TrEMBL record:
Residues 394-421 form a coiled coil. InterPro entries: Bact_CCA-adding_enz_type3_sf, HD/PDEase_dom, HD_domain, HDIG_dom, NT_sf, PolA_pol_head_dom, PolyA_RNA-bd, tRNA_adenylyltransferase. GO terms for molecular function: CCA tRNA nucleotidyltransferase activity. The keyword Nucleotidyltransferase applies. Keywords: Coiled coil, Magnesium, Metal-binding, Nucleotide-binding, Nucleotidyltransferase, Transferase, tRNA processing. This is CCA tRNA nucleotidyltransferase.
Length: 484
């Protein structure tokens, strides 16, 4: 929940933020005024300014049509793009600051797809009432003198002060026009710490299935923004509890049915949310710092294989054997359905697959070979894997938690010691493919690949070999393959 502030406090905060863009706002105000057109700062730009936060982009609305906006900006902007022109939006950059200027809209929706039948409007009020939430339906008039009148016809300031998301019109109408707005509500809960108005929550529960109309790419974009928020757990919980999760990420809600084997949490779902919180707490501990989308996705999904692998044991316990293998496959399937990049899918699913490996470490009984394999399998994800494994320790038994953390400290120390002796991040055979072909007198082909794989396994098992040792081992192996 945002900290309580008076209207005066919020408006003062907005003035401070907008003053950072004073010169640009005056120039734009003068440009549009000279052409006989109105210009308003709107949407998230106004909301964020009131919250004392800057926005990467400045969003404006105007009565000028797109082709008129293009003509005005062409000689002034250092760059300009029209990828959103069919929706009335022209983008431009001024001194490194990105702006988007959209003609007043009065769209109608067909209620089948999310695509509006674009219709330009003729008033600011009509433009504001079609926006998603009242907190995003405020405007500031931009004049040749800079920011001018603050305009709030729909009670956005009061909603912002209360930290409540409500819709300008009946939520059923708003969400019927664009179901993505329901998922956006969960995103704003995660980003801003807001709650949703009771009527908004009731409409989401009733209308959640309509999210199936939205393209996978747009759903994924909202999920990413949600996960990168200040409190993604709150957004996920709203998504799951209202039925949105059943449509866009059903594996998460399914974890509510699986009690974890240690009985330390209400269910695997709550455990996963705790792991996500703890992973976020570890993000700044590394050199990269900051929100880490791959780590957050892996923390959320690391146990999604548990419901499918749940077994009741004879002695009364519950087991989830090989849930990391099943979970990695499920992660790939879901992220492919959401149209994520191959790299993103590979990274998140590999972390899910590896997150349980450490629990075989015991009291430090891994051989150096096992440590090498751990590092090699993690590859560039090793830093994230360290954080995920540590975050996955959620036991309330302080002694057990301390023992697990100490054990992982020891593993990291062993990795560090080995890394000083060997290049663990690039474990390769001691002979390359060309050397293998010369020594075995064979052409390029599958046999070279098998020999290379054998030498790599040997390298993982024994560490670096001299050229003489590697050559002797290769020739001995070659004889075992029936070649003399």
């Amino acid at each position: 929940m945002p900290e309580a502030h008076s209207d005066a406090d919020l408006l003062t905060a907005a003035a401070v933020v907008l003053n950072r863009h004073a010169e640009l706002l005056r120039d734009l105000g003068a440009m549009f005024d000279a052409a006989g057109h109105q210009l308003y700062l709107v949407g998230g730009s106004v909301r964020d300014a009131l919250l004392g936060r800057g926005s990467p982009d400045l969003d404006f609305t105007t009565d000028a049509h797109p082709e008129v906006v293009q003509r005005m900006l062409r000689s002034r902007a250092e760059a300009m793009w029209d990828t959103g022109i069919e929706f009335g939006t022209i983008g431009a950059a001024f001194g490194g600051q990105r702006v988007e200027i959209t003609t007043f809209r009065a769209d109608q929706y067909d209620r089948v797809s999310r695509n509006p039948q674009v219709r330009f409007g003729d008033s600011l009020d009509a433009d504001l009432v079609r926006r998603d939430f009242t907190a995003n339906a405020m405007a500031v008039r931009i004049t040749p003198a800079g920011p001018g009148e603050f305009i709030d016809p729909l009670g956005g300031l009061a909603a912002l002060r209360a930290g409540v998301l409500d819709t300008p019109t009946a939520p059923e109408d708003s969400f019927g026009d664009d179901p993505l707005r329901m998922l956006r509500a969960a995103r704003f809960v995660a980003q801003l710490g807001f709650t949703v108005a009771p009527r908004v929550r009731a409409a989401i529960v009733d209308m959640a299935p309509q999210l199936a109309r939205i393209t996978a790419e747009r759903v994924a974009a909202e999920l990413d923004k949600l996960l990168l928020g200040t409190d993604p757990v709150a957004g996920i919980d709203l998504m799951v509890s209202t039925g949105m999760g059943e449509v866009v990420l059903p594996e998460i809600g399914a974890m509510r049915m699986a009690i974890d084997e240690h009985h330390q949490h209400k269910d695997v779902y709550q455990h996963s949310l705790t792991v996500l919180r703890q992973a976020i707490g570890l993000e700044d501990s590394g050199p990269e710092g900051g929100p880490d989308l791959v780590l957050r996705w892996a923390a959320l999904l690391h146990d999604i294989g548990k419901p499918a692998t749940r077994r009741h044991e004879a002695e009364g316990g519950v087991s989830f054997h090989h849930h990391e293998v099943v979970g990695a496959k499920m992660t790939r399937k879901r992220m492919r359905a959401l149209r994520y990049s191959k790299q993103m899918i590979d990274d998140v699913s590999q972390l899910v697959y590896l997150h349980l490996r450490f629990h075989g470490y015991g009291d430090g009984k891994w051989t150096d070979s096992a440590v090498r394999r751990y590092v090699t399998d993690a590859g560039p994800l090793l830093g994230r894997l360290h954080k995920l494994v540590r975050a996955d320790c959620t036991t309330r038994n302080k002694r057990r938690a301390a023992r697990l953390q100490a054990s992982y400290d020891q593993l990291e120390e062993r990795i560090s010691v080995l890394a000083e002796q060997e290049d663990l991040q690039r474990v390769r055979p001691d002979l390359d493919g060309n050397e293998i072909m010369v020594l075995l007198d064979i052409p390029a082909g599958p046999q070279v690949g098998r020999a290379w794989s054998y030498l790599k396994e040997l390298r993982l098992e024994r560490g670096p070999l001299s050229r003489e040792e590697a050559t002797a081992e290769l020739l001995a192996w070659w004889q075992t393959q029936g070649n003399r």
